[in-house]
Design goal:
six-stranded antiparallel β-sheet; globular
Length: 175
């Protein structure tokens, strides 16, 4: 596994549609100085089964090392999402993508995890037949993200692959 490195200039996190716009006539909030835990880190792992726990540990260690104010449930949700997304890339994209990229973006109010591979197929979170033993990973990611008050999506990359991401709020969602 490669060392996680902070990306240059990656201090802001854009979670499309997640921050309400300023009211009409109200000035937009000025960007605040970044907090110590804010930033973007990216690492790659080989598209093999052994990379799943390595990626999970790397994300867990990064959150702890940066002092991210995330409660235990949020950390578990993020690690479950990373596990599911890396597993999907290893199982379904390894032939076209021998490396899988994992990115962790930490903002003032959000943590975003993303997994990128070079396979062009854009999966959908489909309900699987209860008789099957697999096939529910993206459904699980979608539901964990939703229950945490977050957002997730699948996007194509400029190189023809895809990136699947989930962004979860650092504060508990209002009930």
């Amino acid at each position: 596994m490669e060392t996680i490195e902070r990306e240059d200039g990656g201090r802001e996190m854009d979670v499309s549609g997640s921050v309400p716009p300023a009211e009409e006539g109200e000035p937009a909030a000025a960007p605040a100085d970044p907090l110590a835990y804010e930033g973007v880190w990216r690492f790659t792992v080989p598209a093999v089964e052994e990379s799943v726990p390595q990626a999970r540990r790397a994300v867990r260690d990064l959150l702890g090392r940066q002092g991210v104010p995330a409660d235990r449930d949020l950390v578990y949700a993020l690690l479950l999402i990373v596990s599911e997304l890396v597993t999907n890339s290893v199982r379904h994209a390894a032939l076209l993508s021998p490396q899988v990229a994992v990115e962790v973006a930490i903002g003032r109010e959000w943590v975003r995890v993303a997994v990128e591979d070079n396979h062009p197929y854009r999966p959908k979170a489909l309900e699987a037949d209860f008789g099957q033993t697999g096939g529910r990973g993206l459904l699980l990611v979608r539901e964990v993200t939703r229950e945490s008050g977050g957002v997730c999506d699948v996007e194509h990359t400029s190189t023809g692959g895809k990136v699947i991401w989930a962004a979860l709020p650092l504060a508990a969602p209002a009930v």
